[in-house]
Amino acid sequence: MRINDDLSKPVIVHAAKQDWVPSPAAGVDRRMLFRVGGEVARATSIVRYAPGSAFPRHTHSGGEEILVLEGVFQDEHGDYPAGSYFRNPPGTSHIPAAKEGCTIFVRLWQFRNGDQTQIVLQPGEGQQATPRPGASAATILFDDGREEVRLEDWRAGETVTVANTRGLEFFVLSGGLTIRGEMLEPLSWGRLPAGTGLTATVGPDRARIWLKDAPLLHPDALQMAE
Predict the structure, then answer these.
(1) Are 33 and 16 contacting, i.e. CB atoms less than 8 angstroms apart?
(2) Residue 170: how many CA atoms within 13 Å on its side-chain side?
(3) What angle do CA 15, 19, 20 make, to 5 degrees?
(4) Residue 108: partners with Cβ closer than 8 Å, 6 or more residues away
(5) Cα separations (Å) of 58 from 1, 47, 172?
(6) Do residues 41 and 70 make contact, with C-beta atoms less than 8 angstroms apart?
(7) Domains of the chain
């Protein structure tokens, strides 16, 4: 399966308008944003857990990066309410579940070879940064010099510009934006190749944005088995 796999082209997906696709686990559905591969895939998705659903224990051979969007995501290590962010590096394993149901944003098989940094942040945790023009707050969730992940709050009615020298991925968590005449609502996801900057006009409500400043696929990204 190949979905939005041409990394040389800008892409925007209005995920809230997509249908949910069942996963192999009962009660767990997905909206696929980027995917290369079958059930084991290099992928970016929105995943919804029905109350009481769970995935069997599995190992993330290619690493896993998650932002909890709604509800409480759980595994045997703890509970992660909406706003939690974590990175499970290659080789880690767990039993993901949601007693009351939840929705997460997840990226799989996009870690670099040798990247073993594990992070677990509860809502509100992270390093506060100086907001860019048009933003009211910025929180760095992860920065190792090769990629930076942050949450930003953008003021209503402002036009915000984000430079893009390495590659840029963004996800609208709340509020709305207009980019080149296209309106983006919550759960809209976009990806821009290096050199294509992001200029967005915020709607009448404040917008919260997840941003990843990094190569769209690291040159030394872990390889999946054929």
Answers:
(1) no
(2) 30
(3) 95
(4) 41, 42, 43, 44, 45, 60, 62, 63, 64
(5) 21, 16, 29
(6) no
(7) 2-121 (2.60.120.10), 127-213 (2.60.120.10)
**Gap between the Cα atoms of 78 and 71, Å rounded:** 14
Amino acid at 12: I
Q: How far apart are CA 183 and CA 104, in angstroms?
A: 22
CA angle in degrees (0–180, nearest 5) for 104-109-113: 135
Q: Do β-strands 127-129 and 135-143 pair in parallel, antiparallel, or remain unpaired?
A: antiparallel
Report d(CA 66, CA 88) in Å as an integer.
Answer: 8
Coil, strand, or helix at residue 17?
helix
Type of residue at 41: A
Supply the pTM of this predicted model: 0.96
**Tens of pLDDT, residues 190-200:** 999 999 999 99
Asked whether 198 and 169 are in contact (CB, 8 A), the reply is no
| Average pLDDT estimate for 25-46 | 94
